[in-house]
Design goal:
317 residues, 12 strands
Length: 317
C-alpha cells in the first residue's frame, strides 16, 4: 500500500465541494471506452495544471479530486478484465422502518478546493472530455459549515481516523493486489426536515447524536437515546471497532427550503460500510426519523497507477 499512489480519498472535506454523478449513454462501447481513455489521461494533467494556476506565494487552492466507476460501468467498459473483489451493484437496503434506496450512476466525481473557481474549472474541463458519451444524473454543490460542523449543528468527523492513520482504512491493500491503493466510495444524499430538528431541545438533539453540541464531548451511553447516531453507526467485528473515512458535506438551497447532507464513505472494504448502513437501518438511527434519503450508489475509485493503465488502453485487452 502506498498512499502517494492513491487519489484524494481520505484527505480533508474542503471549503467548496462538488459531487457529480454521470450516466454512460452506452450506445457505442468502443466510442465510450476511447472517451474514458482520453479522459483518464487528460484528467491528471488538468489537476496538475489547476494546482499551478491557482497557487500563491503562501497558499494554494487545495484542489483534491477523486473519481470512479460503478460496478455496471466497470463491467461495461472493461469486460475482459477482473474487477475489484468487493465491487457490486448497490441495489438498496431496507430496515424495519426506513430504507436506503439505490439510484443510477456510472461515473462519480468528488471535487473540492478552497476556491470555488477551481472546483468549477475542474468539473468544466473534465466534462469537456465526457459530455459526448455521458449525461448528468446529479450535481450537488456542498460547503464547509461553521467550525466544520454538520448542517445539524454538531462537529463532524470526530470518530474518523486521524489523517496519519487514514490510509489503512481507506485504501485497498494486498488483499486485492490488482486494485491496491484504490478505494470503495459510497455516495448517499440525505434531505433533512430542518424545522423538525430545530424544534427539538438541545438536550434531545444531543441524545439523538450521542455527543454534546457545544464542546463535542461524547455522552455516557446511559444518557443517549438507544438509537443515537453514534451508537447505531458503530460496527464491531470480533470486538474491534471498524472504521471508514466519513465525509458529511452540507448542501442547501435555502430559497426552496431543501437542506441536507451528502454522505461520502471511503473504505478499504465495502463490506464495512455496508454493515454500518445495515446497522443504522436495523436500529432505526434517529437521524433517519427526520431525513429522506434520495440517492445511493457504490463506486470504485482507482489508484493513479490504474488510471494510467486505463489511459493506455491496458484494460481493453
Amino acid at each position: 500500500m502506498n498512499p502517494e499512489k492513491a487519489q484524494d480519498v481520505w484527505k480533508d472535506v474542503g471549503e467548496h465541494v462538488q459531487f457529480t454523478v454521470l450516466k454512460l449513454n452506452k450506445k457505442d462501447p468502443e466510442k465510450d471506452r476511447l472517451a474514458i481513455q482520453v479522459f483518464a489521461d487528460r484528467s491528471q494533467a488538468i489537476i496538475r495544471s489547476l494546482r499551478i494556476r491557482d497557487s500563491h506565494l503562501l497558499a494554494d487552492s487545495g484542489l483534491k479530486v477523486a473519481f470512479g466507476f460503478s460496478n455496471k460501468a466497470w463491467e461495461y467498459l472493461f469486460p475482459h478484465v477482473a474487477k475489484p473483489k468487493e465491487l457490486e451493484n448497490y441495489s438498496g437496503l431496507k430496515g424495519p422502518k426506513y430504507q436506503m434506496p439505490a439510484t443510477e450512476g456510472d461515473i462519480f466525481f468528488h471535487i473540492r478546493a478552497s476556491n470555488e473557481a477551481v472546483v468549477y474549472e475542474a468539473q468544466t474541463q473534465f466534462r469537456r472530455f465526457l459530455k459526448d458519451v455521458t449525461e448528468v444524473v446529479d450535481e450537488t454543490k456542498g460547503f464547509r459549515y461553521f467550525e466544520g460542523r454538520a448542517i445539524i449543528g454538531f462537529i463532524d468527523g470526530t470518530e474518523a481516523p486521524a489523517a496519519e492513520d487514514a490510509a489503512d482504512y481507506a485504501l485497498i491493500g494486498n488483499e486485492d493486489p490488482d486494485f491496491i491503493n484504490g478505494s470503495y466510495a459510497f455516495a448517499q444524499k440525505w434531505l433533512h426536515h430542518m424545522d423538525f430538528w430545530n424544534s427539538l431541545k438541545t438536550e434531545d438533539q444531543e441524545k439523538a447524536v450521542g455527543r454534546e453540541k457545544f464542546n463535542d464531548l461524547e455522552l455516557e451511553d446511559s444518557d443517549k437515546f438507544k438509537n443515537a447516531h453514534n451508537v447505531s453507526s458503530k460496527v464491531e467485528i470480533n470486538g474491534i471497532e471498524q472504521k471508514i473515512i466519513r465525509m458529511n458535506v452540507p448542501f442547501s438551497d435555502p430559497a426552496s427550503g431543501e437542506t441536507g447532507t451528502y454522505f461520502m464513505g471511503y473504505a478499504r472494504h465495502w463490506t464495512v460500510t455496508k454493515s454500518m448502513l445495515e446497522q443504522m437501518l436495523s436500529t432505526s438511527d434517529f437521524l433517519l426519523s427526520f431525513s429522506d434519503i434520495i440517492s445511493g450508489q457504490l463506486f470504485f475509485i482507482p489508484s493513479r497507477d490504474l488510471i494510467a493503465k486505463i489511459a493506455n488502453g491496458d484494460l481493453d485487452q
